[in-house]
């Protein structure tokens, strides 16, 4: 069988970002910077590094600055050029060169499954990736690339997972799966539940915001009833997919930050800043001075 390439990545970005108010009253949460880069750019760079050629961003009201961010800024570029700021110019150009970006509006916030369904026409009849921009993942091999490597082998839908201990599990989709003998990081999914009570969670394996899905998900999402929170849940659509095809969980290597949450955002900011060549050393010294006094 000829190997199918994952060419398209869908970014649901229409959410209201209520966990991050008041910052997100007028600014999309996807544009909040971790150090100096908007959250969504981390995900887009990951998709491009994994070989995706087309980025599909599902937006909504108040999100047009995301389009401006990935577009060419003629004024900015000519000003940087005339002032000889070539490093910054290269950085600005690199952003507008990140693959082909298409936008589609989700007119009503009806859930993640509904957001993914909005991308149906742009994705067409081929397997595709979904990246939830809030989940920023720091990994030596980009998380989506790790998943595509597994996809090349199994040619089925794959959900990124991570172990979550304690009551926090109720904030996630949770899978019940059986590890594969040849690679225990890959689980064959038997069932999955969206935001279960801790006592009803089938395991500690939480779904993290990276998916590879086969196009059958679209016809199934069309028929999926509203689920947790009165929303059309992607997890519920994937449970229907299980009736037709195999679905795998994949415990990726890397560190994930929930950058849509204030604490997760702070952790990501500190850790990414510490890794920066231009900031890390001074920032570390300052943290060390600060910690005995204030922490
Ligand atoms: C969404 C999904 C959930 C998944 C989570 C990962 O939930 O519905 O299954 O575990 O993303 O971040 P949300 O965070 O949008 O409530």
Structural overview:
This protein starts with 7 loop residues before the first strand and ends with a helix. It is globular, with a radius of gyration of 20 Å. With 295 residues, it is an alpha/beta fold. The strands form three sheets. It has a nine-stranded mixed beta sheet, sandwiched between helices. Strands 2-3 form a two-stranded antiparallel ribbon. A two-stranded antiparallel ribbon has the order 7-13. It contains eleven helices and 13 strands. It has a single domain, classed as Spore Coat Polysaccharide Biosynthesis Protein SpsA, Chain A (Alpha-Beta Complex), CATH 3.90.550. Strand 2 and strand 3 form a beta hairpin. Helix 5 packs across helix 9 and helix 8 packs across helix 9. The site of 1-O-phosphono-alpha-D-glucopyranose has 13 residues, from strand 11 and helix 9.
Which key terms come to mind for this protein?
295 residues, Spore Coat Polysaccharide Biosynthesis Protein SpsA, Chain A, nine-stranded mixed sheet, 36% helix, binds 1-O-phosphono-alpha-D-glucopyranose
Tally of DSSP β-strands: 13
Any idea how many domains? Answer: 1
CATH class: Alpha Beta
Q: Which structural category fits the helices and strands?
A: alpha/beta
> Strand order, biggest sheet?
5-4-1-6-11-8-12-10-9
- Given as residue ranges, the uncertain stretches (5+ residues, pLDDT < 50) are none
Biggest sheet layout? 9 strands, mixed
CATH architecture name? Alpha-Beta Complex
Shape: globular
Strand content: 25-35%
Task: Give the CATH H-level superfamily.
Answer: Spore Coat Polysaccharide Biosynthesis Protein SpsA, Chain A
